[in-house]
Amino acid sequence: MKNKKAQVGEQTMNLSLLLQLGFLALGIIAGVWIFFYNSGYDFRSIDAELLNSRLQSCFRQNNLNFSLPREEFFKELFETCKIEQQEITDDWVIAIYIDELSEPKYKHGDPLSCQLQSKNEGLPRCVESTFQITINEKTATITLYTGTNQRSIVRRTV
């Protein structure tokens, strides 16, 4: 005579083992999919806010020479504000408007792309700020646009 209770227990253990192996396989598949096929992280707005904040505080604390030509001004800006010039690539936008001029006094990148950011996901994410500083003993209104189109690295298999 066979022990039927023992057979039920053995079948239950096999089912439990199969469920555990199934969960383990699903975990491995989900981990590989997330690691290789995720869309990355979008830090463009945060990067733009950080740069904007850093430039604002630099403008308020230092007397920059706004009469310099573009290249010399950006050189002075990077040195005074302690920003690595190699980090500001073509993916970055910096536009400085003084006293509501229609054209930016200084620009790096295309500030028009900042105005179109809501229409196209591929354009830079930008931040605008307006503040007042003293230039040559006069109060000037500065409108500063900063933005970036740098994306995090997306891992793809080839």
Describe this structure in words.
With about 160 residues, the chain is of the alpha+beta class. It has two domains: about 40 residues; about 100 residues. It contains four helices and four strands. A hairpin with a 2-residue loop joins strand 3 and strand 4. It is rod-shaped and about 100 Å long. It starts with a helix and ends in a 10-residue tail after the last strand. The C terminus is likely disordered.
Can you give keywords for this protein?
four-stranded antiparallel sheet; 4 strands; 158 residues; alpha+beta; single chain; 4 helices; 2 domains
Output the structural class. alpha+beta
Q: Tell me, what's the shape?
A: rod-shaped
Low-pLDDT stretches: 154-158
Helix content: 40-55%
Total count of strands:
4
Please give the order of strands in the largest beta sheet.
2-1-4-3
Topology:
Blueprint: H1 4-37, H2 44-61, H3 70-81, E1 92-98, E2 106-108, H4 112-115, E3 125-135, E4 138-148
Antiparallel strand pairs: 1-2, 1-4, 3-4
A few lines on this structure:
This protein has 158 residues and is α+β, with helices and mostly antiparallel strands. It contains 4 helices and 4 strands; from the N terminus they run αααββαββ. It has 2 domains: 1-40; 44-148.
